[in-house]
């Protein structure tokens, strides 16, 4: 198998709200959109997963999936320059729901939550002071 692209489909109540969150705060662009649907990308050169937003209840999904929601999903992006990203997003009014912190094992992270409850976590790995 040769994976050429990764796409994360998310079923949400308000496609427009999530679309604007990902565009405004995370640099996604709309590749295509229709009523109750948006396909977002950061471009072929960016390794971030593409995102497809589907409105809850849409009939393109199998009946057993139509009313599931993406609420509670944590979408994590490993980035460089985490401090600058946290500052940029905070100054832009992004909904930061977990402040920047560093875990003992070397993970630095913070989280935002989009209007539909999708948690976006930005992570940067550092060498822990005490590897034990």
Automatic annotation (TrEMBL):
Domain of life: Bacteria
Record-annotated VOC domain positions: 4-125
Coiled coil regions, renumbered to chain: none
Pfam families per record: Glyoxalase
Stated name of the protein: VOC domain-containing protein
Organism: Streptomyces gulbargensis
Organism lineage string: Bacteria, Bacillati, Actinomycetota, Actinomycetes, Kitasatosporales
């Amino acid at each position: 198998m040769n994976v050429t692209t990764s796409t994360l489909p998310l079923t949400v109540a308000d496609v427009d709200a999530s679309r604007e969150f990902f565009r405004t705060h995370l640099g996604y662009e709309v590749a295509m959109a229709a009523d109750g649907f948006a396909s977002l990308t950061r471009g072929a050169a960016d390794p971030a997963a593409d995102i497809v937003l589907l409105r809850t209840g849409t009939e393109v999904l199998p009946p057993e999936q139509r009313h599931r929601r993406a609420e509670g999903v944590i979408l994590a992006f490993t980035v460089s320059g985490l401090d600058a990203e946290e500052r940029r997003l905070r100054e832009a009014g992004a909904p930061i729901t977990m402040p920047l912190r560093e875990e003992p094992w070397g993970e630095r992270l913070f989280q935002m939550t989009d209007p539909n409850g999708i948690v976006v976590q930005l992570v940067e790995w550092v060498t822990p002071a005490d590897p034990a």
